[in-house]
């Protein structure tokens, strides 16, 4: 498989949930401009806890996107209650 994922655990101020989502919406065009980025999903897994999953076409694209990802996360920092924890890996199985 060529696909790569960046999985990021985020904690955010739940009282600002709607504001966080609205601000993330303003970053769509920036995210769409990242070479090789195919999709982004954010799943709320607990109160004030998100898991973000970004799918890339290759490891090279995921690695090259790191500075842009850091910039985007920096723009969301006001909503976060702790530092993001990211990991990147390749798909070894899917359905």
Secondary structure: elements and pairs:
Layout (H helix, E strand, L loop, with lengths): L3 E8 L5 H9 L2 H5 L4 E10 L2 E8 L2 H6 L1 H10 L9 E6 L5
Antiparallel strand pairs: 1-3, 1-4, 2-3
Question: How would you describe the overall organization of this protein?
Answer:
By secondary structure, the protein is α+β, with helices and mostly antiparallel strands. β2 and β3 form a beta hairpin. It has helices at 17-25, 28-32, 59-64, 66-75, and strands at residues 4-11, 37-46, 49-56, 85-90. It has a four-stranded antiparallel sheet with strand order 2-3-1-4.
Question: How would you describe this structure in keywords?
Answer:
single chain, 95 residues, four-stranded antiparallel β-sheet
In short:
This protein is of the alpha+beta class. Helix content is about 30%, strand content about 35%.
Tell me the Rg in angstroms. 13 Å
Strand content: 25-35%
Class of secondary structure makeup: alpha+beta
Cα distance spanning the termini = 12 Å
Uncertain segments:
none
What letter string, H or E per element, gives the SSE order?
EHHEEHHE
Average pLDDT taken over every residue: 95
Number of strands: 4
